[in-house]
Amino acid sequence: MSLIAQQTNPETPSPSISDNAVLDEFEIPFGQWIDQAVDWTENNLEPVLNIIEWPFDQLISVIVVDTLKAVSWVWVALAFFVIGTLSRNLKVGTFAAIGLGICGILGNAYWIQTAATIGFIGVAVFLCAIIGIPLGIACGRIDGVWNTVRPVLDAMQVVHSFVYMLPFVYFFGIGEVSATMVTMVFALPPLVRLTNLGIRQVPSDVVEASRAYGAPERRVLFDVQFPLARPAIMTGINQTLLLAISMLAIAAIMGAGGLGTLLFRAIQNQDVAAGGASGLAFFLVAVILDRISQRDGDESGGLLKRIRLAWAHRRDPETLLKTHEPNKAPAESDIDYGKIASISSSERVPMVITAAGALLTVLSVLLPWTSGGGFLSAYGRRTDETLVGESFNGLAASGGSWVGILVAVLGSFVLLSVAITSLSPGRGPRWLTADGAVIAALAVSVMMAAYFLARPSHLAVGQNTGSGAILALIGSVIATIGAVWWIQHAPHSPLHPISDNFSWGQVFGAVAASLLIGVGAISIWSYDIRGDVIITPEVQAQIDDLLAKSELDPRQSSVYGAQVSTIYNSLKRSDKILISGTSSEGTSLGTWAYVTSLVALGSTLLAAGVMSTTERFRWRWNTITAGFGAGIVCIAFAWIATHVRSADDNYFSGVGSFLVLVGGVVLVSTTLPVLREFRRAKIFKDTDDETTLPRNPITAV
Fold first, then answer.
1. Which of 139, 173, 212, 701 is buried most, with the most CB atoms less than 10 Å from its CB?
2. Average pLDDT over residues 98-105
3. Which residues contact 368 (CB under 8 A, 6 or more apart)?
């Protein structure tokens, strides 16, 4: 059986319809039709295309180029602190500022792309809100509009983004404008659907009652339907933002710039360092924007889970709305039973001792900490090799550096805890209490002990310990003793009863943290690829002798110069120098961090209930365990931050210090379930014998 089709050669018979070659006989010029349509549109509808492109181009220019990229990263971080605090709470605002600060200290190139990413997502979500919310309201109020829009939304989500990416590239070219448009097409439907659902879920009797009282439709919408639909609309904005984040890789392919471009380039070049840094910045930006855009009370999981749910339910985002709020236990502030326990005479003495020790630690940073170069900074900075006879205080880069800064911050925290508890017991911030003072004071003691046990750099000449560092150690020990004594007498009790079973989960978590810290201790702490020259005093004397001979005998200066060059070349380092946290060539901070983790493992057993499962016993030992964990975090953080602050180019802190820092955070996190439950107790009068008993309001209820 033959099929009549266009034949290029009349002498060649047409192929059978069952032959796949027959497919080549048809020439349906669909691609040509599209090409002709694009050409016609460009030639005849250029003003329309310019009108469509204008808001995208202007917003990107104003927000990204003229604002975020031009303004200092400090001001952007502060702006997000204000935005996060006003839109959510102080915790979210602080996290946003710190997260953007981390993106900034990764380097200027990463910050520029971070700013571009924030601006790109902001423009896309803003335009989605401008279009999606009014369209969703129209869909919710007019059935005909919804019936027309719904199949369009289905098509926008079913068709792959690569397909509708093509016309935008054809009409608007490669760049941020076309990438923003593609992102909008993909991210807009959830906002329209959820706005429509929110309007339709407003109780009809409420709407009818407002109309019965004579409210015009404008007021019905803005005073009744819109406020009641706000949770659904806010969820829609959050889902739109998550889908916009998931499109950053496509935007990078389209030349939009941002962190997606850095990630794409790192994958192409197999650059692990660039991929890790840009991946961290990408993650922080995504979490910050997600947390800021969440509606109040929305705790549906972490960022990865939320993006996965947004992607999985992009066609039915209505299922992500909570139909009811879970039952919540009454907050302590909602129950006004009893009186918060006042400061007893047995508390005053340890509080005074704690405050005295903390004051010494704070004052210590103003005194000399080192002379002849910094104990930690000298490992990564050649300047410290020439600071013979000079002394530095605890805040100087060649003094205590970040060890001194942490001493000042944590010492001030302990002082503030004592002051607030003295003035207003039980009414201040949660952690400015007895257990918070123990954690901060013990962290300083652990860090200062490791500082003195660490090996100072042999590169700095005449390096000595100053009186400030000694005073910081003495003050931290005094503060720790006073704070531990304080929690023995502080009347704290749990909000809810603590299980009297042995906490195996806490022990397993502490073991995992200890293993992680052990791996970090034997891993790299110093990564030195400076390739410069190490000149010891002996070598310098030899060079000076040759230079002196050259001056005395100018005819032999070339010979002496060649000898000096030979010495420099023999000392020049070309290989990577990797030093672990336990190596004798380094500080051995990893060793002392691991020893601290073993001690913390012992305190964890007590905190988990190995000797007693009483609530206060477990609270006290969980507090001490958290102090050891915080001390490990301070050791690793001080090492990393010191070299971020002052190290030469091509000298870096190693991954081992980062692993130790993470291990310390994990160790602290194992104690939080118990510590979060405890507050200063209240005094209740027993109705039978008229005696007063310290209890917690929630427990009493």
1. 139
2. 85
3. 391, 392, 393, 399, 466, 467, 468
d(CA 469, CA 374): 12
> With 50 as the cut, is the pLDDT of residue 191 above it?
yes
- State the SS3 of 683-698: EEECCCCCCEEEECHH
Asked if the model's pLDDT at residue 314 lies above 80, the reply is no
Residue 297's identity, in one-letter code, is G
CB burial of residue 480 (10 Å; 0-12, 13-18, 19+):
buried
Residues 227-249, mean pLDDT to the nearest whole number? 85
Cβ contact 636:552 at 8 Å: no
The DSSP secondary structure of 364-402, one letter per residue, reads: HTTSEEEESS-TTGGGT-GGGGG-TT-EEETTSTTTTHH
CB 640 within 8 A of CB 662: no
Q: What residues contact residue 152 under an 8 Å CB cut-off, 6+ apart?
A: none
Asked if residues 679 and 492 have their Cβ atoms less than 8 Å apart, the reply is yes
Contact in structure between 477 and 357 (CB atoms under 8 Å): yes
pLDDT band at 577 (very low <50, low <70, confident <90, very high): confident
- Tokens representing 574? 């070309």
Whether residue 664 contacts residue 636, with contact meaning beta carbons closer than 8 Å, is answered with yes
| Whole-number average pLDDT of the chain | 80
Look up tokens 């091509």; give the residue.
Answer: 650
Return all residues near 442 (Cβ < 8 A) that are at least 6 apart. 480, 483, 484, 624, 627, 628, 630, 631
55-69, 370-384, 429-443, 546-560: which range is least confident on average?
A: 546-560
Q: Over 70: is that where the pLDDT of 316 sits?
A: no
Q: Higher-confidence residue: 603 or 225?
A: 603
- 137: Cβ contacts below 8 Å, ≥ 6 apart: 195, 196, 199, 221, 225, 226
368 touches 393 (CB < 8 A):
yes
Q: Where are the alpha helices (DSSP H) in 63-107?
A: 73-87, 90-105
- Token pair for residue 8? 């290029």
C-beta separation of 460 from 395 below 8 A: no
DSSP assigned state of 256: -
- Interstrand relation of 368-371 and 391-393 (parallel, antiparallel or unpaired): antiparallel
The pLDDT confidence band at residue 604, using thresholds 50, 70 and 90, is very high
List domains and CATH numbers for the chain: 1-33 (no CATH), 45-318 (1.10.3720.10), 339-532+573-685 (no CATH), 537-571 (no CATH)
Contact (Cβ atoms closer than 8 angstroms) between residue 358 and residue 414: yes
Q: What are phi and psi of 493, to 5 degrees?
A: -150, 160
- Angstrom distance (rounded) from CA 224 to CA 235: 19
Per-residue confidence (pLDDT) for residue 325, from 0 to 100: 43
